Amino acid sequence: xxxxxxxxxxxxxxxxxxxxxxxxxxxxxxxxxxxxxxxxxxxxxxxxxxxxxxxxxxxxxxxxxxxxxxxxxxxxxxxxxxxxxxxxxxxxxxxxxxxxxxxxxxxxxxxxxxxxxxxxxxxxxxxxxxxxxxxxxxxxxxxxxxxxxxxxxxxxxxxxx
Length: 161
What we know:
Layout: H1 2-31, H2 48-143, H3 149-160
Helix pairs in contact: 2-3
């Protein structure tokens, strides 16, 4: 009976050892996974082909980023040139607008002067018409009156003045 018991114990030890070896093999297999990143992975994970593919991909991405950067620089230069042109055009148009505003002010003053003169001339014209009407009335009354020719000539001279 002792031999059976020893046999069971030895069998259990072998089973424990086998289980421990299996666990270690599983851990080693998991640690040996192949990756293209040399910073990751286990002791035996370095793969030169995967590393080379990763390096080539990164260089391609770097070249693409350089092209994009160059395109962005060109775009920025174009935009800056366009902005400078627009600023110059804005400054020129602002100058023209100020000149037109000055001309407008001068024309407004000139128009006001003409309107004042026109009003004064219209008032003077009304006065002259009234005087002319008054003179015509006096001429008619003098012509139709019983004055002598000498009196009429004196009255005409007086009206002429």
